[in-house]
Structures are given as structure tokens and as C-alpha cells.
Batch of 2 targets.
Target 1
Amino acid sequence: MGNSSDQKWRGFRRFLKNRLAVVSFFFIAWISLMAVFAPMVTHYTYDEQNISERLQTPSTTHWLGTDHLGRDVYSRIVYGAQMSLEVGLFTALFALIIGTLTGAIAGYKGGWVDHVIMRIVDLFYTFPSLLLAILLMLLLGRGVTGIVLALGLTAWVVQARLVRGQVLQAREMAYVEAARAMGVRDAVVIFRHILPNLWGPIIVSLTMQIPSNIMSESFLSFIGLGIQPPYSSWGTLANEGFRAMRSYPHLIIFPGGVLFLTMLAFNYLGDGLRDWLDPQGERGI
Amino acid sequence: MLTYTIRRLGSAIPLLFLLAAMTFFLLRLAPGGPFDGDRAWPPEVKANIERQYGLDLPIHIQFGKWVYGAVQGDLKTSFQFVDRPVTEIIAGTLPVSIYLGTAALLFSILVGVPLGAAAAARQNTWIDNVAMFIATSGISIPSYLVASLLVIVFALWMPWFPPALWEEPSSVVLPALTLAWRPMAMIARLTRASMLETFRADFVRTAHSKGVPEAQVIFKHVLKNSLIPIITLMGPIVANLLTGSFLVEFVFEIPGMGKHFVHAVLNRDYPLVMGVTLVYAVILVASNMFVDLVYAWVDPRIRLER
């Protein structure tokens, strides 16, 4: 055991040496704190209009300028972070739960159960995920809940494949065989013995899922199918900014830029975490 | 090989059927119908219209009728564009989307492969760092930001290309670049990873030790053998181009199929949504199949009979 915990420490030290990953971690932590404490770090609310101050370029009163209704862009981006990060996190968790359950059951049970679950997974893989999300949102509504459920229902298949593969490997391990030989119930073997050993790859895939969901949400909101005004996410801000882009490029460059930096940070953090927690894992593309 | 091809074709049909069924029932379960727009219709008129389009029939019969028509190449007429057959709308918009997608695909391969190869050949140097920064940025940047920056720089500051619309040959440039950005990054990252793996292979060491020049090893031995995994990426890339085209066509006001899909969904134009989804699914299923076949053809070690 000492040996394995030594390895963990070595992995953690290697992670700390990956400067990009550490900086990314702090960037994400900073953005998240800003989002959580939005009312304390902004001077305006997301929907406070001031027509006499519309379409201003950045200044000391409005750090990132104002939009066509005189709303403060900086405040809207901070409040937008709440929405975008919330959707990213909850969608990833939702997909994680469904994907882990189905993947673990498919991998552990094998046989026809595995076959049926994997055919369903294949079906979802063939369906372009955003197309499916758009259709699902007709049913689930365009609020935060609708988006989280719709994106989650398209994203779980990635998780299911990952967990199934890992469980298939784990099933052949001696400790699982021992547990089964002692007559431990299937559910207990899966949840108490197998899954706790897979937390590394699962955390890594969670870090990869969050940004892809934030991106999908911003995509949907940008084309007008996601979060509806007056609420704002980074995608809705970009949509409003895009219409005014020719004269006021700051309206799209700021929200788009913040999303870009956040995605970049999640990608670097994910790479770093994979080196630490899941060294044999597949390289991302 | 032939039996495999036939079997794959056989398995594609139930897959397409299930996809169509899923879309059909999802659409119908959703609240709102095609004819409850802003104007409130008198109930008799609405009932008449619904009868005309067969919307009064039980839903499984409607689906059966749709499948029966689809098999014969009849995708019904659109609700939005009265009296225009869905097949006609698709025939008018699909070529635009395919042209755009092909241009983007070519660009992403022509830039992505050299970028990844340069990074791998000079691993851990500044070339590698810059190339990988470009690639990681490419998968991190939202495509509307790419579109905006391209338009601001190459259409407004330097008016080289039209900022939108689909009127002249150069109209394709900015949308295709926007669409290509992400696949380009994916290809570059995979090329690099795949080449680094091949560098460790025995035949590369042999080539080095018998004195083959570095450049020749990289191009003839490593790059050539590293391109095989990239073929498998074509499936996800085609999917990416398809959904990416929604946004790009929306942003650049291009009369392609993606733009229609979004409007058709919002207007509950059932036949048009069904038709466009079916075309997308066929393209995806076909490209996945093509990838598997090409993969088996270039690398005989891969057993298809799993």
C-alpha cells in the first residue's frame, strides 16, 4: 500500500509542476468564486438598464462598456458565468450519474443486458448530439432545467462507454472475483468494490465534460434556442453582441473571450489531471 | 470484405428507422403544434387543416405513413413553405451545406496534419509548444468568436472577403475557415499523438540505425504510418461539421440545410424536421461506415469480424 500512495504523491507533485494546469485551476476557481459572489463583485445587476448610457466602450465606470440597453457588460458577464458554469456542472453531474450507472451495469452484467444498453448507446452516438438536444428541449423547455436535462441526456453515452470499459477490466481482477466468490451481492460489488477504484478516470472525464457542456449551452443560446433574455449566459451575451458587432466589437469579444479562456483553462486542467490520476487513459483529441 | 459491407448496410437500416422514430415521437410529444401561431384559427378551420395533413390520425399511423412515403422517396410537403415538397427544399439547400463542409474538411486536413507533424517532429521545442497552443485554442474557442474575429479582420478592416451571404465564389472563405477551426485542431492533436507513438516503433529505430536521413524517416516512415488513426477521426469530424454548420449558416446567413433545421424546429414544421434529420443521419451513418471500410482496407491487421 505504501508503494501505491508514494505513486499518488509523485503524480500530485508532477501535477504541481505542470504550471499551465495549476494556473488553469486557479483561473477556474477565481471565475467560479466571482460567479457565486456576483452581487458583491459587481456594481450593477444583470438586467439594470440605463438608456442614457447605452453602447459605451470600456471606461472606469463601465469596465467592459455597456450594451444596446445600457446594461453593464462586465456585470452581465459575471452573472452570465453563474448560468454557464451552473449548466456545465449540473449537466456533467447528471450525465455522470446516468452514464456511470448504465455503463457499470452493462460492463458487469454482460450478456443481453450489455447488448441492449450498448445498442442504445450506439443509437445516441449516431444522432448528432446538438440536434438531439434541440429536439429534447422542445419537450423539456428552454429554462436551465430543460437545458441541463437535454444536454445531459445526450452526453451520458460518453460516460457510459468509459465506465463500461473500465468495469470490464475490473471484473477480471482478483478482488472482484474474491468478492463474488464470497457471495457479495452484485450491487455491492459494483458500488463498494469496483466504482471507488475508478474515481481517477471518472474525475478526469468530468473535467472534460464540463467545458463541452458549457460550449454546447453557449452554442444553443447563441442561435436563440437556449437561455432566454433577460437572463444571460455567455452564449446569450454573444448573441446580442453579434448583432452589434460591426460597430461595437467589444460586445462579442468580451463574452466570447471569457468563454474561450475558461475552455482553455478546463482543457489544460483536464490534461494535467489525466497525467496525475489516469496515466494510462486515452489521450484526448 | 463484401459480406462485411452488406452486413453493415443491413445494420444501418434499423438504426435509421429508430432514429426517425425517436425524432418523430419527440416532435409530437412536445407541446405546441404547427398551426397554433400568432393567429388563433377557428376550431373548424384548424380541424380541416389538420385533416388535410393527416394530423388527426392516430400517431403510430402517421408515423407508418411517413415511413411508407420515405421509403419511396416522398418526404411530404413542408408546413412552413406551403406546397413545397421537403425533398425539393433539401435538394436546394443540401449542396450548399456539402460544398461548405467539404471546403472546411479540406482546410482542416491541409493545415491540421502539417501542424501536428511539425509539433511531433520537434517535440518539446517552441515549435511544438506554439503548434499545440494553436490546437488547444482551436478546440477551446467558440465558433461565433472565430466568425466575429474573421469578419472584423478580413471583411471590415481589410475588405478581402464578403462578411456574409452566399453570392460570389469568395463567400465560402470565411464560413469555411470558421467551420474548419475545430476539426483542424482535433486533427493536429491526433496527428501529433499518433506520430509520437510511431516514433517509438521498431521499424523507425531500424530506419534510423541504417542511416536513413531524418527527413525521410519522418515523412516516409513515421507520417505515413501515423495517418491511419486519423481516418477514424473522420466520423466525429463529419458530425462536428454537420452541427457546426447550424451556427455558421446562421451567422453568415448562408442558405444551407442547417439554417432550415433551426427554423423548422421552432415552427414545428414536422415534415421538414423529419426530412433534415433523416438526411443528417444518413450522412453520419454512411461516413461511419466508410471510415470502417477504409480503415480495414488500409490496415489489413484490423479484424472486421468482431
Target 2
Amino acid sequence: MPLDDASSDETIFEVGQFYELLTAQLESAFGRRHPRWVRGEIAKVYEKVHLYVDLVDAGSASSDTKRPVLNAHCWGSQWNPLKKKLAVDGVTLKPGTIVNFYGYVDVYAPQGRIGFTVTSIDVEGLLGDVARRRQELIARLQAEGLLEANKRCALSPVPLRVGLVASPGTEGFSDFTGQLLNSGYGFEITLVKTSVQGEAAPAQIVSAIEALDERYLDIICLVRGGGSKGDLACFDDERVARAIATASTPVFTGIGHTGDESIADMVAHTRSITPTKLGEEIASIVAQWDQRNIRVPAQKVLNATQAILDEASEYVGERRRTMIFAVRDRLRSEARHLGAVRRRLVLQGSHLLDSASQMLLSNRQLLSAYDPKKRLAQGWSIVTGAHGNVVRALSDVRIGESVRVMVSDGSFESTVNGKGGPPT
Amino acid sequence: MTIGDWNEAANELNAIVASFDEGEVSVDDLFVKLERATEIIESLEARLDATKAKVEELTPRIARVAEEQ
């Protein structure tokens, strides 16, 4: 029945009839065959198989009791694929989200409600909105100096006391803790369990960071394995970003994702691309300190000790050899000197003896000329007196004295009978 | 005559060797100097051996620290 017709008469409808008329009229203008785009801000959202949303004018005050509300719903058969598409891009429908719904009006007579059945959602618009809000958050954090705040926290050279914000049992948790536990260093891990995705995650993460920040640990690690943008949306949460930025303990992130870095990564002291890499990096910091302050000095002490001992051994050995050669040389030198002296003396003695022999020979030759035997052989004789004295002159004998006359082959007695003149 | 610490002993030994190098040692002094040099060398070797023994004992411990990863 057309509306105009209904209003033109005084027909009285039963309730059911009225709803039939109303439904028919609405469907003719806003029904399944005449879907419309409706833009609004989500005031309430509820999901249980199907999606239920209270949509209001963007920016309208919740205190305004007269603001129009559109009760929209999206049946599960259509909501589930839409939900998956949104989740991949990290979009969740929550109060405050501005959204464009495409759908049609329906009337639910048992509750007297006019609703809006959503058949599509402007995902691109939502993504643009999410990206815009993300950039706005980054800009705010930058303006407040919070992007660099945690990076200014002094990092312990040996970060062994590790606060961990993670969900035990997840792959990311195992990957991270495995790196620390297998490093060989005595890491002390203080774990605060949290959800790492979903609506409750940001508040839990903030609470965990604040609790660990009061423990005076070396670092706080925020760890989460890979996931879709939707899974990782909590790491773009402003509350999480502010908790990290204002912590007095260096916060390290190991959030596994392949897309843009999260805002948590941006404000963190240090970020790694996966929990495994984060574990490796922390173990590496400790290993580098260990190497620099223990291993290398130990090796230097070892090398220096060996060098000193080698030098000392070489020195003593060299001195020993030097002494042996020096003494041997000295003794040889003395021996050579004595030998030379001896040879000189022998040579000089030989010369002396030769001279003496020569002198003796010439003397002997000289003397031989005076040999009495030679004189006796020549006919000379030697006369000796009674007392054995050689008679050299007439005065040596007396007349009548007996004398002995020695000739070449013997002697004979003779008596002096007279004395004559000198020989002629 | 006592022997000083390592450096003192080494200096004395060097002086004896230098006197040999310079030909200053008379035959009368030679034995005295050789005897003294021998005493010093034996003393240095004994100290060196004792130090080496201690180092041998400690080296594996330091090496373990240096090589562990």
C-alpha cells in the first residue's frame, strides 16, 4: 500500500500491518535494492559472530542525549571476510573510528527497531584514516621529544639483568629467551606476562613496562613474533609508545614484522627486526664486553708473560755463552802471549848459545896455537925445576940443579952444568 | 757476596761481560770474575726456572679465560 494512500484516509492499522507498511515504504527508498553510504563515528561496537555498531555523527558529544544513532549490524557471512581484510592491514573497528558503511535499512518489528545492515565497509578510507592518525601520533611524539627520550637512557655495558615483556609459549618468546639462555652468559630474565595482540594488550604492556622500570634492571625487552598489521597494532598504540619513551630503563624491541616499523620500535632505545635478532644483539653486547675486558686482556697477559720469559731466557743464555767465549778468548790470548814469549826466549837463547859456541870455537882455535903439545912436537921442550916450576929464565935454575925436560913423547932428567948467553 | 734482584744482577753481569769485551780482565782477576759471573747466571737461571714453573701452572687457567667464547 503506498504511503500517500495510507495517509490520505483514516485507515486504522494493526501493529503488524503498520510495520509491513513501514517496511515496504523504507525498502522502496533505502532497502536492499537501494543501498546507501553512511558516514559516522563508532560510538559502541560489539562483536559476537555478527558485528553490531552504534554509529553517530562524527564529533558529536556522547553527553548529547538527542544525537542520532544508527544501529548498524553486519552479519557474520559478510563480516568475517571484511574483518580478515581489515585485520591484515591492522585496522580494528573501535569507538572513535570514523567509518563509511554501505548498506540498507531494515526494520526489526519484534523490537520496534530500525537498523542498518552493512554489506560493505570503505576499507581504503579506514586505512587512510589509520595512517593519518599514526602519522599524527608520530608527529606528537616527535614534538614532545619522546622519539629520542628512551635512546638517551644510559645502556649498561653488560646488560645481564633483562626485563621481558612477552607472552610465554609464543614462538617469539622462545626465540628470544633461547638466544639468551644458549649464549653461555648468566642472563637474569624477569618476565612480566602480557598479551601481545588484541584490545587488552596495550594496557597490559604499559603496566608491564612500568613495573619492570621500577626494578632497576639493565634493559627491558618488548618481544613479539611475526604477525599481521592487525596482530601488531598494539605496538602502534600511543599508550605503549609513551610508556617506552618515558621509561628510565633502556627499552629494546624485538617485534617481528616485515612492514613499516612500529611506533614502539621508533621510540625504543634499540630495535631489532625479530625476537631472535634481539636476543642475538643483547648476547653480542655482552660478548663484546667480555671479549674487550676479559678475553683480550687475558691473552695479552699470556703473550706478555711468554715474551718476558723468552727474553729473560734468551738473555741468560746469551750471557752464559758470552762468558764462556770471553773467558776462553782471554785464556787463549794469554796462552798465545806466553807462547810467543817462550818462542822469543828460545830463539834468543839459541842465538846466545850460537854466539858463545862461536866465541868458544874461535878461542879454542886461538888457544890451540898455544897448545904445549904442538910446541913439543915442533921440537920445543918444557923444563921444570926441582920444585916443578917452569924454567923460563937462567935465573930460575942453579948450576948443578936437577931439572926435568919434557919433550913430545915423554921427559928425562938433566943436570944444569952451566949457563950460557941468550939464544941466537 | 749476595746477588741483588734481577735487574741488579743483570747489571752486574753486564759489567763483567763488558770488562771482558774491553780486555780489562787480568789473568789474576779472571777466575774471580768468572766465578762471580757463574754465580749470577746460575742465580738468574734458578729464578727463571722457578718463574717458568709458576707460569706453567697459571698459563692453562689464563688460556682458558682467553679462549673461552
